[in-house]
Amino acid sequence: MVLWWYPRKRNENSEGKDMSELRKDPIVGRWVIISTERGKRPADFIHREKLKPSKLGHLCPFCEGNEDKTPPEIYALRNPDTRPNSPGWQVRVVANKFPALRLGGDSGRREVGMFDMMNGIGAHEVIIESPDHGKTLTDFDLPHLKKVLSVYKERSLDLKKNQRLKYILLFKNYGQDAGASLEHSHSQLIATSIIPKRIKEKLQGAKRYFGYKQRCIFCDIIHQEIDYGVRIIGVSHDFVAMAPFAARFPFEVWILPRRHSPDFDRSSNEELRGLGKILRSILRRLSQVLNNPSYNFVLHVAPNRSPRRGYWQTIDKDYHWHLEIMPRIVKTGGFEWGTGFYINPTPPEEAATYLRELEEERPLVDSK
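Structure (tokenized):
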């Protein structure tokens, strides 16, 4: 089965292509400046040679054999007959040594004059994706990548049992420019006792759209983008990868499941495998086009639901989980911080074309 198929392309309004554009994100209402006059291509973002990962496993706390250098493992996929906190693991989860939030204690919400504050209740975990110090997500074979994603799923399901935790964010920082402090391939999970503001904006935007049209806005975006084709990078049986219409960053990519679901942790084993395949391909394409850039990816899901008075009744119908990949190839400056606008010097249609048409990755045939 071929992973990618390419929809026919429809022409969009081409007026004003010689000047910058303002584009509105239909979900959160954020405006983005697409600075077509700057017109940056992939080579314009490559400023230096990227260093290859070192092999200093004896110094790395995430390497196999150094299990005593991390907090005790919370969860692990292990080889048979191996013990916790010892060699023989395939994917390992530990508490962050310097956690942003902790599970113990109570919220202690209180007022300080006109201000509100509360204790930092939550969880902060590190998913060590492989015992091999030199491998990244682009190097993993599909069975191993599926194992990493299955650990994401299992940790999410486990933490959802704690009703104090309202939101679970899974994310990855790759490279120094993206905030990674250790080069050994890992991702992180932070669970919070409140729903973050940016998540609320997405949830509220999806709810407004559903109230107006009785349809999921993400599903409508998927259908329209497949129909138009200009921002599509690839489509598989279960997933679509595209450059969003109001992309905040050059070469920003969204991966969305074609089956409507608000929760990543409801994904089937086959869907996890399909996500691994499309994610690996996108990351390889970005690496090829942008010379192994630093990036962040974030898994956006619905919050942990607990039925109560005023409970959001439509969230299962109006929200749609998705993964956002953001290469860190431009700096955020004063204008962005001061206004909330983002300036993107590469139109998403051009970024999608570069990524879609890479010959090295085509055709990509599904294999066991």
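Residues 269-290 form the longest helix (22 residues). The chain has seven helices and 15 strands.
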